[in-house]
Amino acid sequence: GAVVSQHPSWVICKSGTSVKIECRSLDFQATTMFWYRQFPKQSLMLMATSNEGSKATYEQGVEKDKFLINHASLTLSTLTVTSAHPEDSSFYICSARRAGTSAYNEQFFGPGTRLTVL
Amino acid sequence: GQQVMQIPQYQHVQEGEDFTTYCNSSTTLSNIQWYKQRPGGHPVFLIQLVKSGEVKKQKRLTFQFGEAKKNSSLHITATQTTDVGTYFCAGGQNAGGTSYGKLTFGQGTILTVHP
Question: How near does any CA of chain A get to the CA of B58, in Å?
């Protein structure tokens, strides 16, 4: 159990276009989902915390108008990279925590989405 | 903001040797979690430590949480080639307010094991 999927697994787009990435918890409900960005051989940088039915909480330095997050249901959160530019190219990973569990419980990670902006 | 430093960045060992990675936080943590990411994969939860001075073992892996809840370590005894990957520590803040129990990840330690 506790499987998280992401779609697409990779995407190549032109500069200036918008890209939507989906994060789904397949076999559990997730009140809270997290969006991370990871550069090659580097750590995971938290971008924002997404809570079902409310506005996302963004980390300092992350532009909320550029990285739009929608957590419409207990099993789905989406990240939209608007007007993407080459510097947005990265590996985006989401994670989810089971609804009804302690805020200190483990996070289940999706397989990630590789975004390349030309 | 909270910072979690992890060393070493890289560790190359011969199969059978031991391995240790260390984490230090700039602030007191509510909990610390450890994750393993295989090459090309995504992070997978290993364990969580919550109590001051806590020590937990999983077969050849030993996890420690410092008395001040600001540092932690992961020790692998007699490494195997299957241990290859990046090990991340992740410090948790109190879940009050808007933190929602978010984690701050260390930089990770990339472990390679030579057969």
Answer: 16
DSSP label at residue A17 = -
Locate the chain B residue with the closest alpha carbon to A94: B42
- Predicted pLDDT at A103: 57
Measured between CB atoms, does B53 come within 8 Å of chain A? no
B92 and B50 in contact (C-beta within 8 Å)? no
pLDDT for res A17 = 96
Q: Check CB contact under 8 Å for B43 and A44.
A: yes
Structure token digits, residue B76: 């692998």
Please give the angle made by the CA atoms of B16, B20 and B24, to the nearest 5 degrees. Answer: 175
Q: Which residue has the higher pLDDT, B61 or A2?
A: B61
Q: Whole-angstrom Cα distance, residue B90 to residue A94?
A: 15
As given in the structure block, the two tokens for residue B32 are 């610390």
Tokens coding B68: 């001040």
DSSP chain B: ---EEEE-SEEEEETT--EEEEEEESS--SEEEEEEE-TTS--EEEEEE-STT-EEEETTEEEEE-TTSSEEEEEESS--GGG-EEEEEEEE---TTTTTT-EEE---EEEEEE-
For residue B78, the tally of other CB atoms under 10 A from its CB is 11
Share the mean pLDDT of chain B.
Answer: 92
